[in-house]
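Problem 12. The chain below contains 927 residues. Write out its predicted structure in token notation.
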Amino acid sequence: MSAPGALLARESVPTGTALITQLLLALVCAGYAVGAAFGWGSRELAVIMGDFGLSAGALVAAVSCFLYARSSPPRVRPAWLLFALSSAMACAGNAVWGWYEVVLDRRVPSLSIADLFFLCFAPPAIIGLLVLAKRPVTRSGWVCLGLDAWLIGGSLLTLSWSLALAHTTRVQGESVAPAALSLAYPLLDIVLVSMVLALHFRRSSGNRSAINTAIGALALTVLCDALFTSPLLRESYRSGQLLDAGWFAGSLLLAYAPWGARRTIEAVRPPRPPCRPGAPVAGSLAALTPYLAAAVCTLGILYNVVEGRTIDRVVVLTGCTVVLALVVRQGIMLLDNIALTHELAQKENYFRSLVQGSSDVIMIAAPGGTLRYVSPAATGVYGRDAEELIGCPLSSLIHPDDLGRVLHEVRRFLAAPSAGEPTARIECRFKSGGGDWLNVESTVNRHQGGLIFNSRDVTERVRLQAQLQHSAEHDTLTDLPNRALFTERVRQGLTGRRAGDPGTAVLFIDLDGFKGVNDRLGHQAGDELLIQAARRLADSVRSGDTAARLGGDEFAALILGDGIRDQAARESQVVEIADRLRLTLSQPYRIDGNDVRVAASIGVAFAEPGITPTDLMRNADLAMYRAKAGGKDRVELYVPQMQAEVVRRTELAARLRSALHEGEFALLHHPVVSLTTGRIEAVAARARWRSSQGILFTPAEFLRVSGDNDRTAELGRWLLEEAVAQAAERARLGHRVPVSVRLSARRLLDRSLPMSTVEALLTRHALPSGALIVELADSDPRVCLDDLEQRLVSLRRLGVKIALDGFGNGHAAFTALRRLPVDILKLDRGLVEGIVESARLHKITNGLLRIAGDLGLQSVADGVDVPEQLIALRAMGCTHGQGMAFSGLLDEYRLRRALARDDFPVPARIALPVAHRWRVEHPQWTK
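Solution.
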């Protein structure tokens, strides 16, 4: 059985509840029939069951139809209300009949109220059937419906008149009322039967099972009425006979129709295919109905002829009208067929023009796969004539790599129910006339056992999708895989057949000095350098490995393992590859006719069991940063201690963020002493962090790990405010010495430290002019010297002195000296440390001090730790110094004591060897 057949078979199977209901209904009807067949055991009980039993059954049908009408859709609600009214009329008629026979114990009159109720049974049922029927959409449809009803009704009237009604009329011809009543019953039944037959093939698409059951119930009732009206049966009819079982079963069947049938359908509602096996048969019977009706009419006339009877005028009149109705109906059908044929021809021409002019290729394939039709668009799409393709197997046009997938998809589509999946979409490669393979997307439909393909060329779309996919996974500048694709490659390298291979490694590469190339030669030259570096990297990795650009000047490489289990061997192999990459990337780059050099720092991390791609890449990144911190241009292997260091720095940075608010920072001071008199001329403020764990961190330690510009700015503001506040407090105590605060050039230009902030500080604390010295800590080449010069000039207008810190360390200091307004030069500690031992440094320092003297600037030597340095600097003309030769960092209490003493002993002269003799003669300097 096919899949649609199986689904249809399922629909006819009732559920357990519905089956029980049907069994109970059958048992009740069978019980009534048995009782009626045996006379119910007594005449009195037979009369009661024949009258009030039928009334109760009709009442149950009326109540059931009424209740169902309240919950049914508005479209069918009037029909079920009319069925309820029809059953109510039958209930009332049987009740009146029982009133006469049971209560009054006499015969029912020939004309009674019961006859009125029985006559009112058929009209509501007829109108209800009309409501349930499909409404014709045209006038000719309405006319054909009326003609079909008359054909059936007239034929039945002819046959009934010939068999019984004429005799009944002659028997009761003397009394008009009894004759009319005798004719009314069969005529209404004939009309009801006509409607049942005419509308049987015109049912609406609602609850078909309920409607079929209701039609069956009415048909059973009409059949019993027909038997009752026959002269042979009516003369001998008494209540409680077997005929009552038919009426009773019809009432209960009508009561069951809306509820039991609906539960069956709602419980199992499979998708209904558009074409059922019985549909052609049903259509044929509907078309033959008028001719069958005419045949019945002819049989009625032939019966009179065979019996030798005179043909009654009613039979002649009815037969003539039936023939006329049949002729008119055939004429209407002929006109409709002509119109439909013309419309079909127009639609065929229309769709042919659509197919011929469509840019899509339409192909019809036979069940065996041979092409039976190909639209002319194949010439433009495939580059092949349509006639050339007709008769070719469809499989010969499909790429061999796609053929298996296409066949599988077609078989699955044909096996699926057409209602659930009317079409399918298949994409594959078709062979063009030029031998190329085109990407074709086809919409597939079923067609008489074969398939219809509506195909279009999507080669350009596929190319654009591939291009977009490539752009999403590759770097736009170097065309190397980007971070997303590299991460996916690492994941693939850690899973599948390479899972657990300890030889898999990730290399993180950073180009040292690339930023200087960008700043010196421009971004275009920097981009060219990155392109050349990417090309070198891609050419240097092995086949199967992956080189990628992660962003900026950071690259990466995935080195897949070779199955080597020896740890030393695999580390040696990967380190050799990494070192070769380092040397390759460190070779000079030819850019705009110039040789540009950069170095490469490489971090290596090896795969471990259970490691994730993110962790492996993080480990390689940590190793790369360790390589940069260790001197750059080197290869560093990841070790677990690196992660511990990162954790420590992260924790330190987190504590630093809360240290300011918790008061863990302290301000210490270094005395700046005159090398001639030993008096304290100024103090240098320095911040120190004493954490809650009791650890004292220097700025080089906590600022290096903070990585938080906002926190650094906040620390700079705190240092400035605290230094000014303590200097003002010392001034009020009589210690009027300037305080110097070290600030970077970038911090001076930061908007978080506007000019009004410094001016407000000086005003609020009443610090006199010249009491604040700003040490320019560095000269960042990225800082605009024009903006810095303007800022320093504004500070000097406020009475702030400017000191150039770290003088003698690099070319930037001389540039700053040339451009910026400076009052004090602070010699770099690196010069002071070797001034005694190195004659070269001695001469350099002497020259720098001479420059300071020529410019009229004060000079301060930082890092004066031994007396030999002090004497040498003073001999060169240096005026001030700070360092351990005088004092270390002092807190506020010790600083005030030193200011109260107001001098430090300085040596007048010393003979060589300096260090030994000075410590012997002046032991106090060594404390």
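Discussion. Residues 18-134+204-258 form one domain. Students who got a different answer should revisit the alignment rule from Section 12.3.
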